Amino acid sequence: MPFPTSRPRRLRATAALRRLVRETLLAPGDFIWPLFFSATIDAPQPVSTMPGVFQWPVSSAAKVARDAASHGLGAVLLFGLPKTKDARGSSALDPVGPVPRAVREMKNAVPDLVVITDVCVDEYTDHGHCGILRESAAGEPSVDNDATLEVLAEMALVHARAGADVIAPSDMMDGRVGRIRKALDGGGFQEACILSYAVKYASSFYGPFREAADCAPQFGDRSTYQMDPANAREALREARLDEDEGADMLMVKPALSYLDVIRAVREQTTLPVFAYNVSGEYSMLKAAAAAGMIDYPRAMMEVLTSIRRAGADAILTYHAIEAAEALE
Ligand code: PBG
Hints:
The protein is α/β, with parallel strands linked by helices.
C-alpha cells in the first residue's frame, strides 16, 4: 500500500514506539576490550595516538579484569609489549612474558572473565613483521609462511598454558588455524577456542595501534600477507578455509570500511562472526570530537550499532568501557 495509507513516520512518533520497533540492540556483553600489557613500565602509560587508551603494567591486570567484569563486557583481548625483540620474535614464547603473566593475573582475579590473546609475532620481532623472514628469489626479505606457523603454534600453547580461553591468530599466514588447533589439541587444550582473524585487510586504519603496540614494520608493508582492501570474494574464501581448519569464531577487520564484508561472511557461515573496530576508526572519532566536529557519544553508538547491524555478533572496540557506561 503506497502513501497515504503507508506512513513509515507513524512508527517514529515517540521514543517508546521507536524502541519497540528497534531492530538492532547493543549490550555490554557484545563488546570485547583490547588491552596492551607492557613488560617495561610500572604505571599506566597513555597512548598519544589513541586518547583514553593506555599501555598497562602487568601489575594492573587484576584491576583491569575487575573493571571489565564490573562493566559486563563480553571479553578482553590481550596484546603484549615485551622487554626484548629479535628477528625471530623469540620473546613471544616467553612463559613469563607480559601476556602470559597478565592472563594468569586476570583469570585469578576474575575466573569467569573470557580472556582472548592475540597470537602474532609483530610485537616481538625487531623488524616489526608478522612472521619469520627469509630471502626471496629476488634477494628481498619476505615472510616465510611455514616457518612462521611453528612459532605461532608454540605461542598459542604458551597462552593456553597461562589460562587463555580463546586464541586469536592475527598474522594472516596460510594454514595457521589448522596448525594451532593441532598444537592445542596435542597439548591437552581441546577446550581452548580459536577466534580467527580470518579476513584482515592491509589497512591504513591500524596506524594508531602501531604506536600503542610498538609494532610498525621497519621496511615494506604487510600487503604480501594481509588482504587487498579491494577484495570481497577473497574474504569468503579466507573465511571458508579457516572454518574448514577448525576456527570456532571468525573475525573481519577493520569494521567500518568493510561492513559489506561482515554481512557477506555472516551470510556464508553459521559460526559467530566478530568485527574489529580498529584503532584508526576509534582515533578518528576522538579527533573529530576534540575538534568540536561531532557529538562523540552519539557517533560512537551509531558506529557500534552499524557494525552489529551489518551482522557482527560481537565487536572488538576501544570504546568498550565508554559504550558500556552509555548503556547503563
Ligand atoms: C597484529 C595486529 C594489528 C592489529 C591487531 N593485531 C596490527 C597490524 O596488523 O598491523 C591492529 C589493531 C588496531 O588497529 O586496532 N598483531
